[in-house]
Amino acid sequence: MIGHSRTTTLFQRCSAALQRGSYYLFPGRCVLCSALSKRPLDLCEGCEAELHLNQPACQCCALPMNSTGSTLINSVTCGKCIANPPAFTHCIAPLRYEFPINKLINGFKHHAQFSRGTVLAELLLCELTSQEILPELILSVPLHWRRQFTRGFNQAQWLSHYLGQRLAIPVDTRLLSRQKYTPAQQGLPRKQRLKNLKGAFRLNNDIKGKHIALVDDVVTTGSTTAELSQLLRKAGAKEVEIWCLARTPLEK
Ligand SMILES: [Zn+2]
Ligand SMILES: [Zn+2]
């Protein structure tokens, strides 16, 4: 499989060394408890240890699963993915959308707290760098211009640029656009969600044969990422994978 090979340039090595050195000069504070983090990441080791990692989870869509009674915790596929396999190959979601991750994500998304965004992106990167083959292009889930205007920025776009720069993978945040203003999808019945998303997105360039990573901040119902992956695969993408910060557990 042809994918993006990981090479480290001198610039990347230097910037990594500078980054490592800078925290001695400008010690960072933990974004959760405000204590001195004492490391390059603004998250102390104590708070990191308490984060809810998304394990076990569906190996395809990363839906959080219950560990009780399951011995095959690393190779579980949820019923939804078995019954209706999605157009993406897998979803990487290192964390569960629960306290305190929801607090960090909301600060990043709704209050433009980029120190939080950086910590979250670095946690996602830890997971991504263990992948053997990385995609050759990063795309982000687009926001409708009205929502982007009121929020001031697109959090998925910001994440894409951050990850693209750290992994040396090209990013195209204009390739996908949202032409339909859709209400928040959470809490709506599946049928309604799918109806809202019909024709909501547009592809603005050729992606034939490409291995793509589609980035979003949180995958909730999975309808948006499923719809976009389908659009990309239909247009000839060789492979689509989803990268997100966190995955929401099923609503009770
Ligand atoms: Zn802390
Ligand atoms: Zn699944």
Short structural description:
The chain has 252 residues and is α/β, with parallel strands linked by helices. It has helices at residues 10-25, 45-49, 79-83, 101-111, 114-128, 145-151, 155-167, 190-197, 223-234, and strands at residues 91-92, 95-96, 137-140, 176-178, 201-203, 211-219, 239-247. The strands form two sheets. Strands 1, 2, 3, 6 and 7 form a five-stranded parallel beta sheet that branches. A two-stranded antiparallel ribbon has the order 4-5.
Output the keywords.
Rossmann fold; 9 helices; two-stranded antiparallel ribbon; 13% strand; 252 residues; alpha/beta; binds zinc ion
How would you portray this structure in words?
By secondary structure, the protein is of the alpha/beta class. The protein has one domain: Rossmann fold, CATH 3.40.50. The chain is 37% helix and 13% strand. It is built from 9 helices and 7 strands; from the N terminus they run αααββααβααβαββαβ. It has helices at 10-25, 45-49, 79-83, 101-111, 114-128, 145-151, 155-167, 190-197, 223-234; strands at residues 91-92, 95-96, 137-140, 176-178, 201-203, 211-219, 239-247. Strands 1, 2, 3, 6 and 7 form a 5-stranded parallel sheet that branches. Helix 9 (223-234) links the parallel strand 6 (211-219) and strand 7. Helix 4 packs across helix 5 (114-128) and helix 5 (114-128) packs across helix 7 (155-167). It is globular. Mean pLDDT is 86; it is low at 69-73. Residues 30, 32-33, 35, 44, 46-47 line the site of one zinc ion. One zinc ion binds next to helix 3.
